[in-house]
Amino acid sequence: MAISFMMDGKEVVVEEGKTLLEVARENGVDIPTICFHEATTANALCRICVVEVEGMRMLQPACIVRAANQMKVQTRSEKVIRARKTILEMLVSTMDLSEAPEIQKMMKEYGADSNRFPNAERRESAIKDDNPMFVRDYSKCLLCWRCVQVCADDAQYTFAINFEGRGFETQIGTFFDSPIPETSCVLCGQCVAVCPTGALKPKREFLLEQGMSPQEIGILNSGRKKRK
Ligand code: SF4
Ligand code: FES
Description:
By secondary structure, this protein is α+β, with helices and mostly antiparallel strands. The chain has 2 domains: 1-122, Ubiquitin-like (UB roll), CATH 3.10.20; 134-227, Alpha-Beta Plaits. It contains 7 helices and 9 strands; from the N terminus they run E-E-H-E-E-E-H-H-E-H-E-E-H-E-H-H. The chain has helices spanning 20-26, 78-94, 101-109, 146-151, 190-194, 203-209, 214-227; strands spanning 2-7, 10-15, 50-53, 60-61, 72-74, 134-136, 161-164, 171-174, 200-202. A hairpin with a 6-residue loop joins strand 7 (161-164) and strand 8 (171-174). It binds iron/sulfur cluster (SF4) and FE2/S2 (inorganic) cluster. FE2/S2 (inorganic) cluster binds next to loops.
């Protein structure tokens, strides 16, 4: 059934069941996303996609809220812009976004101040380098959950990683913090492919950054293959 509603003052007619984000994208309206990825189930964790819906006190995450008949939605109101800017400022205050180009772009667009919360506790974590495929640097992790979802029932059904800890201590990890080779991980690389911040990085890229030459990396890999 078709429904009709207003987005940024324009009437939109769509099939019932679509999210506000889907409708926006179909109509060329830009709504930023971080935790949302086409390959995973939307979970509304980051809130960067919030929009203003007339009659609702709280801003609504466009990635999960469905369009409804007669709804009136503002995707760029003052309140929306302020909320997105604050979310970005909180993120940059607590984690390393140096390898998150999409988020850096958003920061410029929204004029986010990277020093707005100078005393915020930062997420610190030593690099975990325990397998031949990828390294993990959770000081760059914004807990978007994409990696957990592709490892689980959104794609791979491997369930090698999950959330662990509580509150600020929450982080992504393996059961009992086991090294990756001791988990059910099959090194498919899907988690690395969906990570938006460089918290999960291909081992080869990491070694090149560390100053290793492609030849040295090749020798290292052939040694690994022989040992198998
Ligand atoms: S490691 Fe990457 S994909 Fe996984 S939760 Fe952190 S930022 Fe998201
Ligand atoms: S993209 Fe919608 S809440 Fe993260």
